[in-house]
Design brief:
By secondary structure, the chain is of the alpha/beta class. The protein has six helices and seven strands. A seven-stranded mixed β-sheet has the order 3-2-4-5-1-6-7, with helices on both faces. Strand 2 (30-34), helix 2 (41-54) and strand 3 (58-62) form a beta-alpha-beta unit.
Length: 173
C-alpha cells in the first residue's frame, strides 16, 4: 500500500503524536526518520522527550540533510518523517540548494512503494518575522509545505491534538 500523508500544525499541536498513532496502524515495523540535530541542551531534551514517548519499538534513522536518501533506503515499511521544517532549517544552515532538494524529495515521494507520514510545522499563521532570515525561512517553509501537500495523498491539520482533514477535499478549483 502506497500512501503519503502530511500532518501540519502549530507548535505543540499534537502533530507528532498523531503521526505516530497513524504509522502504528500501518504495520508492525515502525521506522522513524529524524531530522533534528541536538545542538544544545534544550533540543537534546526535546529529542529525548520524543524518543521516550515513542518507546523502543521504533527503529530510528537520522537524516538531518539526506532525507530523500533515507526514504529511498527505508522503503518497504511504513515510515514517519519528523519533521520537514527542521529538515529545511538544516538545509538552510548548510547553504544547500533548497529548490533542488525539494524537487529531489518530491521525486522520491512519488517513487515510494510503502506508506510515509510526514510531520511539518505551519509557520505562516503567526506574525511576520522582524528579520530577513526569519522571513526567508517562513517563505521557504510555506513553499515547501505547499509542494509536499500537493504531492501527498492526504493532509491533516493538527489542532489541540485532534486531526482536521484538509485533503482530499470535496471541491475542485
Amino acid at each position: 500500500m502506497k500512501k503519503s500523508i502530511l500532518i501540519t500544525g502549530g507548535a505543540r499541536s499534537g502533530k507528532s503524536a498523531l503521526a505516530e498513532r497513524i504509522v502504528k496502524r500501518m504495520g508492525d515495523t515502525l521506522v522513524y526518520i529524524a531530522t533534528a540535530q541536538a545542538f544544545d541542551d534544550e533540543m537534546t531534551a526535546r529529542i529525548a522527550e520524543h524518543q521516550a514517548r515513542r518507546g523502543g519499538e521504533w527503529t530510528t534513522i537520522n537524516a538531518p540533510i539526506d532525507l530523500s536518501e533515507a526514504l529511498l533506503e527505508s522503503d518497504g515499511q511504513p515510515r514517519l518523517v519528523d519533521c520537514l521544517t527542521i529538515w529545511l532549517t538544516n538545509l538552510m544552515l548548510d547553504d544547500c540548494d533548497i529548490p533542488a532538494e525539494t524537487e529531489k524529495l518530491l521525486s522520491v515521494l512519488a517513487q515510494q512503494t510503502s506508506p510515509v507520514v510526514i510531520v511539518t510545522n505551519e509557520v505562516g499563521s503567526g506574525i511576520v518575522p522582524d528579520n530577513k532570515l526569519g522571513r526567508q525561512f517562513r517563505d521557504a517553509a510555506g513553499r515547501l509545505n505547499q509542494q509536499v501537500a500537493e504531492a501527498c495523498d492526504e493532509v491533516y491539520l493538527a489542532v489541540s491534538g485532534q486531526p482536521l482533514k484538509v485533503k482530499p477535499h470535496d471541491f475542485d478549483f
